[in-house]
UniProtKB/TrEMBL annotation:
This protein's name: Uncharacterized protein
Species whose genome carries this gene: hydrothermal vent metagenome
Length: 114
C-alpha cells in the first residue's frame, strides 16, 4: 500500500472521481476491474449530486492490482481499497464515509490553525 508521502502517477486509461475537498478516487482499469465499476460509481454519484467522474490523461505508470482503488487527498494517497463486486449501495456508503472523514479532517485543521 502506498505511503501517505508518495506521489500517485496516472495512466491514460485511469478515471478519477472527484469527491470535493481535494479528494480523488482513482480507478485503474485493468482486466475484470472495469467499466461496470465505473457505471455503478457513476450511478451512486449521480444520486449524491455533488460528485463527478472525469476521465484523465496522464504520465507514467504506478503498479496496482486491477481491483484496487486509491483514494487520495491533495495528491497524497490515503488508503487502498479492494473492490471485487461492489454494489451501488456500498459505493454510496463509501462516499458518505469519505466525505465525513474529510469534513472532520478539515474541521480539525481549521481548529488547529485558529
Amino acid at each position: 500500500m502506498p505511503q501517505p508521502h508518495q506521489q500517485i502517477s496516472f495512466k491514460k486509461d485511469d478515471y478519477v472521481i472527484s469527491l470535493g475537498f481535494d479528494v480523488l478516487c482513482l480507478f485503474r482499469l485493468k482486466e475484470q476491474f472495469c467499466l461496470k465499476h465505473i457505471k455503478k460509481m457513476r450511478e451512486a454519484i449521480k444520486e449524491e449530486n455533488s460528485l463527478e467522474i472525469k476521465p484523465i490523461r496522464i504520465i507514467d505508470d504506478l503498479y496496482l492490482p486491477h481491483n484496487i482503488v486509491i483514494l487520495s487527498y491533495k495528491d497524497n494517497p490515503l488508503m487502498g481499497l479492494e473492490f471485487n463486486d461492489v454494489t451501488k449501495k456500498e459505493y454510496k456508503k463509501l462516499i458518505k464515509r469519505i466525505k465525513k472523514a474529510i469534513i472532520k479532517d478539515a474541521q480539525l485543521r481549521f481548529a488547529a490553525e485558529n
